[in-house]
Each structure stands twice: as C-alpha cells, then as structure tokens.
C-alpha cells in the first residue's frame, strides 16, 4: 500500500495530459503521479516520508500545472465571477488572491479555487480537481453573458518550503520578499513577466508562479535549480502527510458536491447580505439558519503506519456512527496518525474519543482542531 | 514504456474514486489503471497484448463504471437534452442508445456521450472523460430550467468479446440475443432490473449493463464469472490496441475542445435544418459551408513496437507538416503500427505516404480509413 514500494501502474495517454514541466519531473526521478484536472500531478519522488522531511527543512519546486486556470474575459466578466461564488469580490484588491468556494444551486461545493484578476475585465479562477471551465461556460452560455471563458496557456509552478524566499529572490529579485500572503506581483523573467503569488498547497511558506506560455516552463525550472543548489532545492509535490497536518482540504477527497461550504468550515467566505446575489445563495441561507449538522475536523489516529484512505472510513463513538475519515496519513513528526474527516455535531468537540474503521482494523482516535499542532 | 513492465505508479485517494467493482478488479490481478471522470478505469490485466488476444477470441468483463451517467429529470428535461447536442433527438426510440456529440457555443467538442431515456422525462447521458454534469447543470442554472441534473448511482459493467451473447444469455436469459445494436432492454437481475444495451468500447461485440445500485455490483460480477468458466471469461478493460484498430475515438486523446464534430468525422450526427436549435448550431453552420480543413484518419506506422502516444506526434509529407497522431499502438494481428490522428485536407486521402515523429525517431506511415482492415 506504500506508493514508493508497490501499487497499480498508471497508464498514460494524451488524455492524461503532460505539463510544460513533465520532462524535467521525469528526469528528477518521479515515482508516482496522480491525475488532477486530466493532467499529471507528481506526488512522490524519493518517498512520501523523505519528501515530507525535505519539504519541512529546505525548498522544493512543484509541478502544479494541473491547477488549471479558467479565464473569464469581457464586459460581463466581473458580473459572472461574482455570480459563481458566495464570497463578496467587491473588496478584492488588484493584487489579491481570493479563496472562493463555488457552489451549485443546491449549495453543494463544486470546487474551492483561488480567484485573481491579472488585468482589467479579466479573471483567473485557479481550480481544484473538477472541470470548472464547463460549469462557468455553461452558466455564461445559459445566461447569454458577454464574455469568453477559456483555459489559457498558464501553468503554475510552486516553490514551497522554509527556504522558498531565498530561492525565489535569487531568480526574481528581493522584491519577492515583500509579497504578502495571498497577494501577487507581476515580476520579469527572461523577456516576459509572470504573476508571482505568495500561496501554495503547503504550510511551509512559499510561492506559486503562474507561468504564462508553456515554452517558459523549462527555462524557469532550470533557473530555479541552477540558483538553488546550496539551498538543497529538489523536485517535489503536494505531500499527503504535510497537507493533512496543515489542515489543507482536498476537493474530491475531503469535500464533494454533497457538502456545503459551512460543513467544510468555509462559512466565513459566504456573504449573507440581502443585496448580495450568487448561485446557491438561497440554499445556503436556508441552511445557515440551522447551522451545519456536521463539519470538517482533524482526527488523531492511534497506532502505527496507515494505508492510504481511498474511500471514506467510518467513525463511531459509543454505539453511534458519527462521521467519516476522508484523508489519513501517519505523521513522522507527531509520531501518530493524522486524518481529516466530516464529524457530526454531537461529536465534533475537540477531544472527543472516537473509533476509526481502517482497512487494517479498528483504531482508537480523537477529534482535533485543524491544523494539527496549532 | 510498456505498462506491464514499468512506468509511474498511480497514487490513490478518495478523489480517484473506486467503483462498485474495484475489489473484484483488484482480486483479478489488475496491473494498471487510468483515471477517467475522477474514477479508476482498469486498463491492463495480463499484458496489453495478452488482453488483446483474449478479447478477440473469448469474452471479458470490464469495469467501466467511470462512464458516469448524468441524469436529467423533470418537465424541461427533453428541452435541455436537445439543447445540448446537434443530433436531432426527436426520432430517438424509447429503447435506443443515441451517440450524441456535445459542443460548446463555438462548436468545439465537449464530450461524445451516449444518450438514452430510461423512463419518461428522464435522460441519462453516459459520458466520456469530462465533467458534463457541470456543463449541463451550468446551462440549466443559467437558463432557469425546471429539471434536476444529478449523477445517479449507476455504474456500467461491459461484457465484450465474441462469446458475450453466450455469457449474457446464461445470466439474463436468451432475450439478450434479440437486443439490436445500440438498443436496450430492461432485464431482471436478483430483485431489480437493469438497462442492458448492445454497445461497448470494442469492435468485438457485446453489451453494457447499467448497474443501478452499487450493492448489485459484486453479485452481478460474481454471477458472470460463475456462469462463464467454460467460456474463458476474464476481467479486462478497454484495450488500446483493439480500439485503435477498430477506429473508436477517445475523447481527450483523439478529439478535444479544439475540434468540431465534422473534424472528428461526426458530421452525420449534426442536424442543419432551419427549425433546429442547439448550443453551437450557428458556429457549426458557419463551419459547414466550408467543410473541415482537417479530419480524423487512421495512420499505418511502419516498423516495430511503439511507445504509448502521450502527446501529439507530428505528421509530415514532403516538407510540409500535415497533422498529428494522437493515439498509437503496435498491432499483433496486422503486424504493423496502427494510429489515429488528425490530418490536413490536402493529405487525408487514404494511401498518402507520410512520416510520423515518434519519441523513438521518425517512422514511415500511410494514411488509411478507419477502422483498419475494414
């Protein structure tokens, strides 16, 4: 069950799209991929645990081109962008990355992208794993809006880890150090400029570079590795252990269309003013009056190494079913299993003792806040 | 590059969804998966070539649960279903499976599903690899239509190969023999009934059983294997060699949003009457006046075994670039490489000599009709 040791092979085709960085990723010795937005997402290089320790101490370059952009452009772009999310976009600054839950007409989560505005009347929706291009295009087509909805040639490359500032400053200059969290600057590289944001799918700090133009992918990768030898720079990817410790949710695993933003702990991103309109608002308001009956929590799991969580694991307390675990890993730093799951209201208080049905048998556990160790 | 021998591992999570058949597939010794509609699609059991020979001689059971259904239900269901495709649905019989290209407002292919009507005011769109749930929901939401768009608990299981009729008759009775091509019957199994259609992603004949209710998955799988021992029944999956020989296109590989139905050889499914309306109709009509400038063709490729085609391979004739190969395999039965690609009009006549740039070097080739050997 350890992806560094065995497991099924991945059959490749044009449909499992390569990225501008795939040749470099392969040369760096990638061992495993996932598929994300119909695209290769590198997941393991040395081993899940070795990658984890390195990420927490040094700096890694991640091919996250699979975080595709949906570009909305044209006179109705602003209207459509706001219609898509319960988060009020009117206060979004020009250099800001906005975490924007997006829901359907029933209030069910469709994706949890980051929205930014790289230019006037132009939005990028930087998506998690679902074809938001089709949703956004469908809504625009149904509403006869005046805007183009496309997938531009933009491939994010993440630089993550405690030495990310030092590495990026060597390639883009010291200006990167002054980029605030979830803000971006447009910085020069070769004969172009890239959106460089302080963001990323780890809690170790770092940046995401929105590489506009596939042909710049390898030159940027090479520049980062040439500059970072003494920083111990390595290829990496989103790390299952680190992101669970850090409480970073994964769309499709920890939340699906079956869940509302409030269940996912994202209620603070849902505007409820009377004047405010978006798809799903009425459904969200109805649910808000009662509050959610279950919510995302961390769960400590006792005992040794855990198999990957490839389907929900039932969680119980006493005789009652009280929720499910949706992501789990054994944490070397905490020397304990860490998990993310959806827990019923009567049991979601941190400290509640629970039992988790893993494929290897029942384990004792304890409800916790997210992130772990915070 | 041979998926039976080596290649990257696939990292599993809840997001790479299991199917009702996954435990049986694993027990049958699956070696490789692809991901299709965020779900596991078994691709290799013994080896790509051994699976191919078996499929052409015996009968296989395929977990194609990843052919998810989008259910459209309600008073506006018929109107919406027609709005989605340029194919006229008014002549679709109650027991008919309709191959229905679906395009966006620019006429670009979004998917090439099969549409059927399992009940009154109820449509199933049986999809290829893109989130058509989001497109269809988006259009319905934008147009304020009265219908529910959902993903029901329906998981197709395919029975393919020359002995498919014999095997299925043993489980569902001799009535299966009278099901015509791309027609279906509702047949009893245990305490329920399933839509059983004569269809499938091979040219060897066979059926797709729309398993409604995940709990029936393993009992049906087991019934098929119990009944088919002397027929040599085995677990299998869509076979890359056989489907290329048979000219079956793969959405995402052989066609994308960049292509029109006419480029994909699907012009006969596009209605052009004045009275007819669907998304993309105006764009398709504009293109129709000129005809496509490139179209899908078969391409023979000389020489020995071929690596998998994981990105388009350039095709040239003389000094000119004239298209690209998008799927390729070495065919044991033809003892020659077979490929599917998009070829420019000046070069698409069968017999035209071309050169194909494979990752292993340039090969000579020849344009052909599809399917091969027909």
Put the structure in a nutshell.
Two copies of one chain form a homodimer. Chain A has eight helices and 22 strands. Chain A is of the alpha+beta class and 374 residues long.
* CATH architectural grouping of the largest domain in chain A: 2-Layer Sandwich
- Major sheet description of chain A: 6 strands, mixed
Shape of chain A from CA axes?
Answer: globular
Number of helices of chain A: 8
Kindly report the spatial arrangement of strands forming the biggest sheet of chain A: 13-14-15-12-4-16
What is the chains' assembly state? homodimer
Helix amount of chain A: 10-25%
- The third-level CATH topology of the largest domain in chain A is Gyrase A, domain 2
The pair of chains with the biggest contact is: A-B, 54 and 54 residues
As a percent range, the share of strand residues of chain A is 25-35%
Would you identify the CATH H-level superfamily of the largest domain in chain A? Answer: Probable tRNA modification gtpase trme, domain 1
State the separation between the terminal residues of chain A, measured CA to CA.
Answer: 29 Å
């Amino acid at each position: 069950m350890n992806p560094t040791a065995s497991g099924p092979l991945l059959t490749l085709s044009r449909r499992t799209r390569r990225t501008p960085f795939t040749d470099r990723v392969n040369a760096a010795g990638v061992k495993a991929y996932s598929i994300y937005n119909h695209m290769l997402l590198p997941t393991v290089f040395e081993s899940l645990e070795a990658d984890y320790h390195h990420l927490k101490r040094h700096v890694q370059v991640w091919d996250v081109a699979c975080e595709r952009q949906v570009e909305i452009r044209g006179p109705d772009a602003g209207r459509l962008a706001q219609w898509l999310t319960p988060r009020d976009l009117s206060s979004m600054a020009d250099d800001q990355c906005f975490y924007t839950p997006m829901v359907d007409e029933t209030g069910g989560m469709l994706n949890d992208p980051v929205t930014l505005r790289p230019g006037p009347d132009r939005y990028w929706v930087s998506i998690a794993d679902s074809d938001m291009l089709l949703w956004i295009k469908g809504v625009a087509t149904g509403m006869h809006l005046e805007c183009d909805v496309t997938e531009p040639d933009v491939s994010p490359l993440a630089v993550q880890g405690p030495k990310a500032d030092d590495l990026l400053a060597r390639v883009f200059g010291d200006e990167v150090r002054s980029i605030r969290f979830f803000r971006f600057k447009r910085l020069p590289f070769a004969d172009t400029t890239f959106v460089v944001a302080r963001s990323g799918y780890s809690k170790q700090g770092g940046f995401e570079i929105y590489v506009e133009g596939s042909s710049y992918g390898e030159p940027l990768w090479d520049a980062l590795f040439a500059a970072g030898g003494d920083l111990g720079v390595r290829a990496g990817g989103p790390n299952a252990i680190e992101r669970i410790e850090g409480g970073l949710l994964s769309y499709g695993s920890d939340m699906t269309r079956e869940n509302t933003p409030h269940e996912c702990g994202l209620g603070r991103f849902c505007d409820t003013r009377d004047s405010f309109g978006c798809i799903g608002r009425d459904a969200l308001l109805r649910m808000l009056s009662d509050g959610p009956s279950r919510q995302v929590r961390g769960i400590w799991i006792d005992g040794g190494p855990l198999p990957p969580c490839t389907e929900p694991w039932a969680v119980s307390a006493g005789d009652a079913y009280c929720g499910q675990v949706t992501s789990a890993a054994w944490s070397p730093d905490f020397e304990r299993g860490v998990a993310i799951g959806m827990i019923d209201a009567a049991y979601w208080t941190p400290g509640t003792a629970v039992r988790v049905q893993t494929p290897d048998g029942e384990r004792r556990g304890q409800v916790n806040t997210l992130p772990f160790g915070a």
